């Protein structure tokens, strides 16, 4: 599932309310042209498993603050999993 372009400026965390008890979720970022963003590919994301209201999306080497201010497409790779909600947590000012 690929979401519409999102700006991640000031975003510190991506949280998923999801059930991956019977499978897994991986998350990747794409640029506006649909190309994978190095450091934020599904292969570089931590695998999400289990059932939780607050799964945190993370990548092995990269952090959201490493991104420039452009908008990105968030792609969720669901393998026998369901996502109920997505929350972008912003830095407090």
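^ structure tokens above, recovered residues below v
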């Amino acid at each position: 599932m690929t979401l519409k372009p999102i700006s991640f400026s000031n975003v510190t965390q991506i949280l998923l309310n999801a059930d991956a008890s019977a499978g897994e979720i991986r998350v990747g970022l794409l640029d506006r042209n649909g190309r994978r963003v190095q450091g934020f590919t599904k292969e570089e994301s931590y695998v999400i498993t289990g059932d939780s209201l607050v799964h945190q999306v993370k990548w092995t080497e990269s952090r959201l603050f490493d991104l420039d201010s452009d908008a990105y497409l968030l792609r969720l790779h669901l393998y026998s999993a369901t996502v109920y909600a997505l929350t972008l947590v912003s830095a407090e000012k």
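The chain has a mean pLDDT of 95.
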